[in-house]
Amino acid sequence: MTDDAPRRLRVLAAMSGGVDSAVAAARAAEAGHDVTGVHLALSENPKSFRTGARGCCTIEDSHDARRAADVIGIPFYVWDLAERFREDVVDDFIAEYEAGRTPNPCLRCNEKIKFAALLDKALALGFDAVCTGHYATVVLNPDGTRELHRASDMAKDQSYVLGVLDDKQLAHAMFPLGDTLTTKPEIREEAARRGLFVAKKPDSHDICFIADGDTQGFLAKRLGTAEGDIVDESGTVLGTHEGAYGFTIGQRKGLRIGHPAPDGKPRYVLDISPVTNTVTVGPATSLDVTGLTAIRPRWCGRPPASGPATYTAQLRAHGGETDVTAELVDGTELRVTFTEPVRGVAPGQAIVLYDGTRVVGSATIATTERRVAAGA
Q1: Of 25, 43, 20, 45, which is closest to residue 35 (Cα–Cα)?
Q2: Bridge-partner residues for 38, per DSSP?
Q3: Annotation marks residue 300 as catalytic
Q4: Residue 106 annotated as catalytic
Q5: Which of 181, 38, 161 is nearest to 103 (CA)?
Q6: Burial 143-179 (b: 16+ CB within 10 A, else e)
Q7: Active-site residue, from 56, 57, 106, 208
Q8: In sequence order, what are the residues at sequence separation of 6 or more whose Cβ sits closer than 8 angstroms to the Cβ of residue 144?
Q9: What letter does residue 156 receive in the DSSP assignment?
């Protein structure tokens, strides 16, 4: 074996039961790595999860993952991380909504479960890397540092939900699908060629711990109902609600105001106040955000240089890029100014900064700055 020959790694493949993670595990094994499959049991009462497998954590999913591992020819285990998942993801999700913020549980799961709890356990057992079916790319630089980049196929890129990974986590992350330009149908065709039963399985879109997809109902069962007012920007009461946690910034449907605005145009949720249990609505133009402050920054590899710098930013998992100027203040606070106003920005969401295709890092939005309306 020459010095530049690929190193054979001990790889723990996180197998959700879907097609992407199955093909990723198969590619890692085909590349010559010593691969072991693991499915994460994340529900404290898995029998309560839905059948039909539209998520990634059901009983059916664990069976599908096991069958895929058998076809690939790798050992397979189920690891119980339900308590950690409840504390770090589910409880966080509920607390964030209760505080009037809009969390991203998939991003939190990557940060706290797949590349923290799972990775820590994997390293303790002697594994070199955790492999997942995410579409993103880790680049190894000549100096030994690593960078996280967007997937080769922008249509499937998932780097946004991985923007919380730090340098240590990147050093032990493997994304076999990230540098492929194959389309999703071609991934499914590859799965079929490999004899993987999950080749035709639908993609997961739901929040995995909300069985029926009813987020508001899920929160109501845990937080109860608390009637409050829906008001306009002047404070005029337009209607009532059963819990401010049931709304998100930018929401248009389900406001139940009962009568149109004076100008006849739709109204949107502008603000959520958990202290007064009030939801403020107004016109779309009042959603224009010109800047924000974000906290708890995490850097994918090297941190940014001091002082303001220009980047592109992504604000949602499936959102586009927007030009920004950002500066880290006191090492703990990220201040961002948008070149053009953007809409639908809510506290609790993650902002992920990019330098070209490289993921610079992410932070949690704390406050936003709105454009002052003409004549105000």
Answers
A1: 25
A2: 14, 77
A3: no
A4: no
A5: 161
A6: eeebbbbbbbbeebbbbbbbbbbbeebbbbbbbbbbe
A7: 208
A8: none
A9: G
What phi and psi values does residue 291 have, to the nearest 5 degrees?
A: -165, 170
Same fold, 225-282 and 286-370: no
For residue 55, how many C-alpha atoms fall within 13 Å in the half-sphere facing its CB?
22
Q: Please identify which of the residues 56, 57, 106, 109 carries the catalytic annotation.
A: 109
Q: How far apart are CA 358 and CA 355, in angstroms?
A: 5
Domain chopping of the chain, boundaries: 10-194, 225-282, 286-370
Residue 313: per-residue pLDDT = 97
Specify binding-site residues.
14-21, 40, 133
Note the pLDDT tens digit of each residue in 301-330: 888 888 999 999 999 988 899 999 999 998
Closest by CA position to 207, among listed 49, 337, 346, 357:
49
Query: 10-194: CATH homologous superfamily?
Result: HUPs (3.40.50.620)
The token pair that represents 34 in the structure block: 């010593």
Q: Which pLDDT tens digit goes with each residue over 194-250?
A: 999 999 888 776 688 887 778 888 999 999 988 999 999 999 999 999 999 989 999
Pull the structure tokens for residue 373.
């309306």
Strands 268-273 and 278-282: antiparallel
**Binding site membership for ATP: which residues?**
14-21, 40, 133
Burial class (CB in 10 A: 0-12, 13-18, 19+), 131: buried
CA distance 243 to 222: 11
What CA–CA distance (Å, rounded) separates 10 from 125?
10
225-282 is a CATH 3.40.30 domain? no
Helix (H, G, I), strand (E, B) or coil at 249: coil
Strands 10-14, 34-41: parallel, antiparallel or unpaired by DSSP?
parallel
Place of tokens 């998942």: 85
CATH topology of domain 286-370: Elongation Factor Tu (Ef-tu); domain 3 (2.40.30)
How far apart CA 85 and CA 113 sit, in angstroms, is 7
Structure tokens at 165: 């990974």
CA nearest 69: which of 11, 109, 151?
Answer: 11
pLDDT in tens, 248-299: 999 998 887 877 777 778 899 999 999 899 999 999 999 999 999 999 999 9
